[in-house]
Amino acid sequence: MYCACIYVTHMNSVKTEMENEIKKVRVKDLVLNPINPRTIKDEKFKQLKKSISEFPEMLAARPIVVNSKMEVLGGNMRLRAMLDLGIEYANVVVTNFTDEQQAEFIIKDNLSFGEWDWDALANEWDTEKLQDWGLDIPSYAQYDEEEKEASKKDATDSLRAKFIVPPFSILDTRQGYWQDRKRAWREIIGDNGESRENKLFTSPPTNPVSKKLQESGGVSLLDPVLSETICHWFAVPNGTAFDCFAGDSVFGYVAAYTGQKFTGIELRQEQADLNAARVAGMSAQYICDDGQNVCNHIEPESQDLFFSCPPYFDLEVYSDLENDASNQGSYPDFLQILKNAFTGAIKCLKPNRFAVVVVGDIRDKNGFYRCFPDDIKAIFKEQGVLFYSDLILIEVIGTGALRASKQMGNRKPVKCHQNVLVFYKGDPTKIKSIYPKIEIPETDGSQDVEL
Predict the structure, then answer these.
(1) pLDDT above 70 covers what percent of the chain?
(2) Of the candidates 95, 94, 99, 113, the residue with the CA atom closest to the CA atom of residue 35
């Protein structure tokens, strides 16, 4: 049986008189320790209450240890159980520990000095009864693997609740929680790319992929969960955000929803009008103009976040306008438009702020990659805005499975990722002083997106 004197045996460095008699005090007069380092899972807590109900002698054998203020040093879980069970009185030992001794006692009281003899338990005890009594029986390797997986899942769930998605360099859109959240956003925003369906231009059809997109009516659309993540990770709370290639309403809607004042520049009048209609009444506006003219609409060093998902050259051709980046005859001409727009955008961004660009590499007519992400990095580096974080957005494979066999004839694995390039303008040592601790509102941290 466990009695008060046992504490002396285990407290070699805690010099105190433990011959204090056990006192009976009212449970409601005891104070749970707010810094108790031990926790208990719901199922284990239920088992503890069940044990106390069936064997109240446990409480007499192991009194609660308190200080002179009746704050619990040892026995927090038992006290919680007694409160739940409505037990009125508890046996306690009142100590006169110093603050340092109290801290040492709290830790040492929670240490386990013994181990179970699993062979003896297996051979001489009823395993089912042991489990009913609250003892976890391991199944060797399987038990270890289950514990490891559960631990990883708990950690991932905790990170997801705190940051929307786990803050790793891999952003996996295939996960169930991501897809659930994406569907919820799509229902709220209502942008399914219909303004571009069957309106992609191919004159001339410089890229066969663009022609297939036109024939199928399929278009790419920014992922709203990615947009939400970027706003929470890299925006200043209640700040300003902008995009000089605002081809759909997704980022503007999400930015405004999360508290940003957003400005988008879009070349095509019909798209700018549709985007503006979707964000009517929100803190967002869309201006119809060439993204190269961003400085005509936004004051220098006035914005807290720059975001863009620019055209991928001629992969999707959005219009036959002469100054449409996707409608250029050569890759250098296309890249010059982006350079002009991004250079202007950098001037509009405040010092010590982030710029985020979502891109994917594209192939030339011979099938070789153009190193498009590297060209974007070079543009920002030339303006003194350096590459800060490299994120990979893994996409749902979708129709990729249908194309894989044919593409592998040319030894080209199907591409199912994009690059999320994070740049920082200024002194990175100031980030902590400018950007507060990330706190996701309760409705934003769940899988349900609510207005």
Answers:
(1) 76
(2) 99
Q: Which amino acid makes up residue 70?
A: M
CA contacts within 13 A on the Cβ side of 299: 6
Fold of 6-109: 3.90.1530
Q: Which two tokens stand for residue 83?
A: 């409160």
C-alpha separations of 168 from 28, 156, 229, 442, 444 in Å:
46, 10, 12, 21, 19
Does the domain made of 168-445 have the CATH classification 3.40.50.720?
A: no
Instruction: Determine the Cα–Cα distance for residues 38 and 160; give it in Å rounded to an integer.
Output: 23
Query: Going by C-beta distance under 8 Å and a sequence separation of 6 or more, which residues neighbour residue 271?
Result: 195, 196, 247, 248, 318
Gap between the Cα atoms of 394 and 414, Å rounded: 12
State how far Cα 188 lies from the chain centre. Answer: 21
State both tokens at 393.
């957005």
Rg of the chain, C-alpha, whole Å: 31
What residues have CB less than 8 Å from 157, skipping those under 6 apart? none
> 300-326 pLDDT, tens per residue?
999 999 999 999 887 788 887 888 888
Render pLDDT for 384-427 as a digit per residue (tens, 0 to 9). Answer: 999 999 999 999 887 788 888 888 999 999 999 999 999 999 99
Total residue count of the chain as it appears in this document = 451
2 CB neighbour count, 10 Å cutoff:
10
d(CA 231, CA 440): 11
Instruction: Kindly compute the dihedral angle of the four CA atoms of residues 155, 159, 161, 167, in this order, to the nearest 10 degrees.
Output: -150
What is the largest distance, in Å, between two alpha-carbon atoms of the chain? 95
Residue 124 contacts by C-beta under 8 Å, 6 or more apart in sequence?
Answer: none
- Taking the domains of the chain in order of start, what are their residue ranges? 6-109, 138-163, 168-445
